Each structure stands twice: as C-alpha cells, then as structure tokens.
Amino acid sequence: MAKRKSTSPRSTAKTTNPNSASIEATRPTISRDRIHVFGVRHLSPMAARDLRDLLDEVQPTIVLIEGLHDATDLIRDIVRKETRPPIAILAYTESVPVRTLVYPLARYSPEYQAITWADDHDADVRFIDLPSHVFLALQPIRVPAIAPEEPATSEEHSTPADDDADTDETSDADSPAPFEHTKGVYERIAESAGESDYEAYWERRFEHLDNSGAYRTAAMAFGEQLRDLREDHPRENAENLIRESFMRRCIDEALAEGHQPEKVVVIVGAFHASVLGDEHPSMTDDELTSLPSLNAKRTLMPYSYFKLSSQSGYGAGNHAPAYYELLWDCLNSPSRVEADQKHRGVDDLAAGYLTRVVRELRKSGTHRSTAEVIEAVRLSRMLSSLKQGTAPVLEDLRDAAVAIIGQGDRGVLAEPMARVEVGTAIGTLPKGVSQTSIQDDFNQKIQSLNLEKYRSTVKQDLSLDLRENRRAKTEASAFLDLNRSTFLHRLALLNVPFATLQNTRQASATWGESWQLQWSPEAEIALVESVLMGETVEIAAAYQLQQGIENASTVAEAAALVKVASRCEMLPGMLSARGKLQELATQSAAVADTAGAAHELTTTIRFGDVRRLDTAPLLPLVEELFVQSVLGLIASSVCDTAAAQKLMTAMDQLNNIALEFDERVDEALWIDRLRELARRDDRNALLSGYACAILLERGQMDNDELSREVSRRLSPGIPADLGAGWFEGLSGRNRYALLARQSMWSQLAEYVSQLDEEQFRRSVVFLRRAFGGFSANEKRTIAENLGDHWGISAEEATDLMQSELSDDEQNALEELNEFDFDEF
Amino acid sequence: MAKKSTSPKSAVSVSKSKGNPDTADASSVLRQPAELAFADEIDALIRAEKDPCPAGWRMSPRSVLTYIIGGKVGSRTILPKYVGNDRVVQIAISTLVTDRALLLIGEPGTAKSWLSEHLAAAINGDSTKVIQGTAGTTEEQIRYTWNYAMLIAHGPSQEALIKSPIYRAMEQGSLARFEEITRCASEVQDAMISLLSEKRLSIPELSTELPAAKGFSVIATANTRDRGVNDMSAALKRRFNIVVLPTPAKMETEIEIVTNRVKELSADLALQAELPSEDSIEQIVTIFRELREGQTLDGKNKVKTPSGVLSTAEAISLLTGSMALAGNFGDGSVSPGDLAAGLQGAIVRDEEKDKLVWAEYLKNVVKKRGSAWRPLYTACEDHNG
Cα A46 from chain centroid? Predict the structure, then answer.
C-alpha cells in the first residue's frame, strides 16, 4: 500500500520542487548547539511577547520558522502594508481526494510577530517545515520512508485497526499545529493539574508568565515532558521525526550560508524544540528525494476570528481569538514598560475583559453597573488564587461574570461573552495576493458576465431576464442573464455568500429572477476554500452537488437537488440526482413526500424551457412518482387533522400535475382515486370533502351527485366533527362553485338545525374553522344564501349581518367560546 | 477580643458555651449541625493548616474546599460533602473571601442549604446563625427586636435588645445564613440591601450603629421553581454573587450522592433495615432522571414529566422511607413493594394527571426493560392500580 503511494509520484517531486533538492551532498557541519531555539504554541500571545524580547536581545541575522518550506516566498506578501491578519497559509493537493494544510496567523501569533520583526530589522526569514508537496503526500502514508530513530515502527505498523481510524481522520483537512496530538495526553495533563480543561491549564501556566524568558524556559520543559508522555501513534510519531530532521537540515543550510549560530533564532512548536541540536542527524539528500510527493499548491488567504474559533474542518484553532488579542494588547500596553515592576500587563486583562462584556451587555439593553465589574474582577482574582494562578484565566473570568454580572444566569451573557472572546475580525490581503485557480476563474467569469461593479461591499440588486435576448448580436450577450443566473446559482451551491436569490413577486414567471449581491471578506474566504473541491467554479460546484446527492437521505432533499442541478445547468448532476430520487422514492411510502418531489420536478421541467437543459429524462420519473402518490393516497388518508393538512397540499400538487401533464400522466387514475376517496366514509372526513371539492372543480361531479353526497355526509346521526370536518374539506377549494349552489346551503342549514345541543356546540368549532378562511364578502353571500333558505330576503340578511350584536347574542357567543376543546 | 477567645476552641465548645441545653447530649439530637457531625474532620484540617486564613476564618479557603469536596489531610480522609461540581464550590468560597454575600439558587433538592451549612461550619465552626425565611418573616427578625418588658420598664438599652442571627454575625465577624430568602416578602428582603452594601446596622433607638467585624458575610439560599416564592429586587440581587446549583449532571454522580446520603441517614436514624441494593438505587435514580428530563437516558423515547420536581433529595428520602417500611413492617430487606410505595408517593402528586404519566411510563419504558426490572414493574403496577 504505502510503497505504491510513495513511488508513483516521486518523479513529479523533482520537477516541481528543484530548489530543496539542490543541496550539495558535502555539507560542512557547523554545530547547531548554539542557535537560539524558541518553542511556542501557535496563537499564543505570551509566546509572541517573549519571542520579541528575545529577538530584540539577540538581533538575529536570520529567523527560521516552522512553516511550509516552499511557502517562504509568501512571506513578502505577509509583510505588505495592506495585509491585515488574521490570514492563513493554505496548501492543497491538486488531485482528488484533496488534502489540505492550513496555517492560520493572527496578530498575536509568535510566527507573525517574528516575521514582522525580521522585516523591520532587515533580517532573513525562512520557513523550515517540510515543503507542502511532501507534507501533503505524507498525510495518509503509514510506513515512514526514513525513520532510523524509530526501531518499534515495524511492530506498530501491524495494527490495521489503528491505521483505518487514521485514514478517516486524515481524509478531512488535517492540522499541522505542533499540539495536534491525541487529546488524551492533554486532558490528562490538565486533570493532574486540577484544571477543568487544557485551555485553562495552558493559559494559567504559560500565557501569564509575564517576565522575560520565563515562557521560553517553561515551554521548552513542557515540550520535553510532552515527548515523554506521547502515546504510541506510529504514523504521527514518524511524521514528526521526518519533519524534525528536515528542520535540522534547513538550519544546517542557514548556517552553511554563513549565518553565525548565535545570530540564528528558530521558532518551532514546543514539541519539536528540544530535538534540533547536534545529537540528532539532519535529513540527507537521499532521504529527501525518497520522500513521497504530490502536486500541491499554496496560497495566502484571508481568515477570520470566527473561523479560528470554530475550528470547523481544521484542528488548528484558538477558542477565543479576540480574547487572546486583548491579552496581546495588555502585554504590550505602556504600563508594562513603566518602571513599576509590580504591575504586569496581564493584570489589566481581567478588567479589560469584564468591562467589554458589560459594555456589550448594555448595548443589548441590560444595564449593569461599574461596581459589579469591580466585584467580578475581585471574584475572578480570588478564583485564580485558589488555583495558585497569578492572574485570572478565561474560565475564572467567565464564572465571575456569570455569578455577578449575569446574576447566576449564563444565558444572558452567552452573546456578550462570545462577542468579546471570538470577535468579528476578518483579515484582508492586498488585491491579487490570494490567487487560487478558482479565484482566477471567478474573476474571469465576473468580467465576462459584466458583474464587476457588483463586487463591492454595498448591497446591490440585480434583476435577470432568463429569456433569450433576440435583439442581441452574439450568443453570449443573448444569453447573458441566463449565464449570470447559472453562475450565481453555482456560487450559492458552493455556499459562497456573494449573491442571495430574492423571492420574486410573480411566482409564476419562470424566466425572472431577482438577486441581491454583496461582496464580503467571508465570500472571499469561502471562495478560496472552494478550491479544495475543484479548480473552477463549475467543477467545484459539480463536486459539491455530487456530495450532496450522495448524502441525501430524503425524497425532498433529492428533489431539491434535481432543481439545484438544473438551475446550475449541470446535466450529469441532474441525472444522478434523479437516480437518487428514484432510489429513495421506492423506499419511501409517504404520499406527501413523493407528491412534493413530483411537484418539485415539474417546476424544474418548466424551468427547462429557459434553461437550455434537456429535462426530458425527468418526465418518466414524474409519471412514476405521480402513480406512486396517487395509489398511496387512499391508504394514507386514515390520519389525524395535522397530517391531513399535508395531504391536502399533496392533493393540490397532484392535481396540478394531472392538469399540466395530462398527456403523460394517468389522469383517469387520479379521477378514479379521487372518487373513491370522496365516497369512502372510513377515511379522514376532511380529505374526503377535499376530494369532492377537486372533483367539483374539475366538473367531474354534477349538482345531483353533490347534493346526494351533501345529504349523505350531513345526515342526522353523523357525528358533528365528521360532518363539519367534511364540509371544511369541501369548502377548501373553489368557493364560488359552492356559493352558487343554493341547494347545498339548505342542506347544511337543515343538518345543523337537527343537531342536539352538545353536537351543535361541537359542530360550531369545525364550521367556524371552515368559514375562517372566507372573506367578509364571501361570508355575506353565505348569510344571504342561508337567509334565502329561511325565507329572509337578501337585503334583510345583509342588514342583520351589519347591525351590532345585542347583549344576549354577545353572551351566547361567549358561551360558545368557553367550549372545552380538551376533548379533541 | 471575643473573637479571639472562641476561635481556637473546638466546634463542640462553641455551641456548649452558648449554654444551649439541647445540644448537650449529642446522641439524643435528631440531626446534629455540620460542625458537630464533622468536628474531627474540621479539627484535622485546622491542625494541618499551612496557608494564611482570611480575617475571621478558621481555615484557609483551600482547606474549606477540601472539606467540601473531599480529599486528604495527612493520612486522614475527608469525606466529600458536595459531589458533582467542584467549580460551583470554588466560586462560592471565593465569593466569601471577597466579603461579598453569596446567594445559592437552584431547584428544590439541589443541596443549597446543605452546602450553605457546611460552608458556615468549615469557615466559622458555627452554622447555627440562621434566619429561616417564611412569608411571615418580618424586618425585625432580620435586624433586631426588643425585650418589650425591659423596653417598657427601662426604655431602650443594649440589654433590652434582642439580637437577630445577622446582628450576632456582624458583631462576631462570622457568617450568617438566610434560608429561603425569596419566601420573605420583597419588602422584608430589602432590609438586607443597605446592610450588605454598608456593612453597618444602625440602631436609631440607641443612636448608635453596629459596624460589621471583619469576616462578616451572608449566605442566602433561594428556590427557583416553587410556588409561594417572591421576586427579588434588582438592588438586592446586585449585592449578591449568585451561584446556580445544577442538578447532578451525570448519572454516576447522582447515584454516588444518593448512596452516600442513604448510608449516612440510615445510621443517623437507626433504621432497622439493610441498605437497598446497588441495582435498586440505580433503578430509582434512573426513573427519577428520566421522568425529570422527559426522555429516557438513551434519548430514544420521549416520556411525559409529572408535576413534581423529582429532586435528588426526594430520591434519598424515598429510599430511606422504603427502608423504614421494610424495617418496621417487612422482613428488613427493601423489597420492590417498598420501593413501589415510595415511588407512587413521590411521583403521583396531582392524582389525575400524574397517575396517567406514571402508568404510561411504566407500560412504555419500565415494562420493556427486561427481567431485572420485572419485580419493580409488577409492584408499581399494583400500587398504581
């Protein structure tokens, strides 16, 4: 397995990456022992602070940073004036399955601070971790290509279960952070220190070490301890060994170029910090060339604090980026520089955090006083001293805030705390810096579709007419709006928040679309990430669609995907969604679902006319779904009122399909089933009534039949809820047909008059609901109809309706209101 | 001075020095205050104390924490008093160190009073300065009242003053407890406002005021979910650090709490019955948790919730109740019938509705649980009839 993988792409390694392979074999060996190694945790403000102190002191000529070796050329873009973190370095393979590596950088990242320091002081900067094409290729490989220090590897490799688990993990984006190891170790460390989680442990032990050099010493010791504690994880261990030996190789290179060892600062994860000395060998040329390789690309991309905190997809995150930025600001506040040795920057953090929380809370309308902030600061300090901390950590601050500012209620503070801890910061890059193939494709499309002016942060509306513009000279301009629509639909499928489809007022117009467009950094981020699914917008969208189809589990989902595919003009996707829909439909028996799906398909077919998409393959499926739904109708009509509402919608949809595609679908079957349902007494009365209404509307039921049915349904002895429920169904459609049939109203009046007191009260409930949807005008016509039956002229009836209610009548109505509904 | 003379003495001597005859013979008391019941643990902690103690405290905050959540002092094991959420205890203790008043809120039976008593016992060796709040509690009972015979005979004087528990706590610089504060009328609660913010109690009749000695604070408890509780004014809330006591989050924790407490209580009450088996405790806790949360533990079935709260405390009293039943009227071992009688009483509060809820739960959930649950199911069915 592993060998095959490592051999096949080797040829590409040499061609794509000549620079790292071109090192002469006879390297002079200069001792690495005197270089300055600084072990960090990524996204650690205290590390950044302490590191800057070290840099100021050492004044290195070169700074070596753990990061993708071949991303070194991106550094010049990182230090550009217009670049504002958070940003991230993204590396990904060109082939499927896409493997990715993400290195996020915030303002308070030690790596970022080191880069800016080097830029300010004209020192060299270089990334010294494995180049991306090797690192990415290593991800799924089990047997390390070189691992002389690892004698136990062969034994450990013989645990296939472990390997399988790994494959799953690494198939989604993996993280290069130095602390990405299994959680078990970290939880154990935190637990043994009496902390509830690792974050609290880390913050208390490391982030508050506010005097020069303390962090470096502590992190170095911690890294060594971690190496002892690490678990038997053959792949991970092997990967680390390879990375470390490559890092040593890079350090040797720098020394060979003439940098004095005392003037070299190396910044790596604390885990690697202790093994960069002379006692371990560096990677040789042979070893390097024997490493597997994959075609890979890398780019800078803007990042957001929200992404950092949510860690979605990537392991490299930071649960409270804005909070750590606040800590970074505190550490750099002027008060730290002052001669007052007792006051440390970190002491300002509690007040800073709690004040911000209270201000956010006030913005949302809940007032809390400054006195409460003071008390909360005191409580948080006390909590921290119980744990022998020097300053409160985030956990202490949160608990203190809840006890005092939130008055015991965590819910009130959830949003203010999230705002202060996570924040909304989004990074920016200068135009043109972040260039992935999908961005190129996007830019090209935006230009050719004449959408350039919508690429602004101001929200703009765009109305599209999807029909062919017959006056246009070229085909491109004739179908401009249609192409735009397809493009925007594809972006929507990729979840790029650039354009949102608005509801059109004319629901029937299949050729009109109204969009709202707004460009945002989030859209840029989403777009860059889409490159992981494909090189162009179209390919990525197709991939996303296919994923969606594979994951679809309900008929409704699959039907929606058919529609999406047609709007994105993706025939293969549409066909595969159709296949999935059919497969799911055979498993699902719910009439409401299949009818809904059939309806969805018919709208797609109607769209097909404008969409230049052959929707003919969908027609047989519509037929199939139609038959399935119609046949299931009678059986599923034994149900309660709530389910009946859904079935009424389904009946509407089926009826529309029967009308619209009368040549394709079996309309006779539909009418037959409707008749059956109308006739049956043992189904939900509401649905039977509704079936009558449809038949009536389609002219399949004449007056005699209706009047026979009415008298049968509303004959004495029929329980009020059944009789009135049936009537409710009947009145659900086509009211004019009902209003015009005087005889029916007479029958209804007679039916009501023969009910006893109890039955009458019950029937009122249902009749009220049945008439609830009628307009005032319609109600008046009903009154007139009934008046006619009782021998009152239309005028009199209208007068009566419009006169005020007498007290007695009012009381009688209120009595009805007190009817106990519990029995239903 | 007074403070100095009492603090080094053991807890026993403190209560004796008050000349309270009821506490003289420990064995005849139904339930001893925590400082007596756990006197040796408290003494051991004080003896081993290394960290500095805040003013008015008998031990350091860390030792108080050990006393409450359990641990070791030298070779001696300290029993855990509050199980489940150590963080809550840490916040409570820190609050008292910062001289803020502490308000413990929670549903009935989440060990609010229990925690408050043990905090006072550990910090001051005296958990008896208590105001038990009711709808009839007056402002005088919070501040001070008069010995009216003396007041009429000699006019207002220090001797005629009857001091409230809070008054005494302010004098001595110790903790006062205010149980069920929300059961008092809101106006009465508000007597605490200026007292807590200024830490002085004015006595206009004697034209003096009493400044609180260092170490004074108040632990109040309040119910969130009960009838007959009053709102608390925002001004008063602002003077408390509010800690919400959660219902035990984990099944194991709750079983542990129930098992320990049942063991302790049965010793205290000298119940003539064997302790219920582990299985039956687990079954009772399972039933309580499922009915409380409205779903089965595996989350697969929804169940209706009865009107009662079904707190952990109720599970404990149910089990001791069935032990009493078994001891006095049965063969001394807790039978499913004894448990069923207790369950019926705990769950069916509002005859009509709860009975249905319980019957439904029995049929849909308990019946399907297999043979281990069968005896309990049959017994419950009989009782629910």
Answer: 32
Question: Nearest CB to A403: which of B65, B97, B242?
Answer: B242
pLDDT, tens only, B94-106: 999 988 899 999 8
Last residue of a domain, one of B244, B272, B296: B244
Q: How confident is the model at residue A818 (pLDDT cuts 50, 70, 90)?
A: low
pLDDT at A123 over 70: yes
Which of A55-59, A139-143, B324-328 has the highest average model confidence (pLDDT)? Answer: A55-59
Q: Which amino acid appears at position A224 of this protein?
A: E
Q: Could you tell me how many residues make up chain B?
A: 385
For residue B216, pLDDT over 90 is answered with yes
B62 and A CB contact within 8 Å: yes
The span from the CA of B94 to the CA of B61, in Å, is 7
CB neighbours (10 Å) of residue B79? 11
B32 near A CB under 8 A = no
Q: Which residues contact A738 (CB under 8 A, 6 or more apart)?
A: A696, A730, A731, A744
- Residues A400 and A489 placed together within one structural domain of the fold: no
Q: Cα separation of A380 and B241, whole Å?
A: 12
| Domain span including residue A91 | 2-17+31-181+211-303
User: Under a CB-based contact definition with an 8 Å cutoff, are residues B68 and B81 in contact?
Assistant: yes
C-alpha separations of B326 from A39, A318, B280, B335 in Å: 66, 57, 14, 7
pLDDT in tens, A383-421: 998 888 888 999 999 999 999 998 888 888 888 998 898
Best B95, B232, B245 member to test A by mutation, with max A CBs in 10 Å, is B95
Which range of A225-229, A271-275, B173-177 scores highest in mean pLDDT? It is B173-177
pLDDT score of A120: 92
The pairing of strands B130-132 and B175-179 is: parallel
Domain match, B220 and B301 both: no
Q: Which amino acid is at A812?
A: A
DSSP type of residue A139: T
Provide the number of structural domains found in chain A.
Answer: 4
CB pairs under 8 A between A and B: 52
- Shortest Cα–Cα distance, A384 to chain B (Å): 9
Please give the order of strands across the beta sheet that includes B130-132.
Answer: B130-132, B175-179, B217-223, B101-106, B240-244
Closest among A495, A312, A307, A525 to A434, alpha carbons compared: A525
Q: Are residues B239 and B261 in the same domain?
A: no
- Residue B211's DSSP bridge partners are B200
Highest-confidence range of A750-759, A762-771, B339-348, by mean pLDDT? B339-348
Are residues B202 and B91 part of one domain?
A: yes
- B312 with B247: CB under 8 angstroms? yes
Is the pLDDT at A58 greater than 80? The verdict is yes
- pLDDT value at position A140? 60
Contacts of A375 in chain B (CB under 8 A): 98, 100, 241
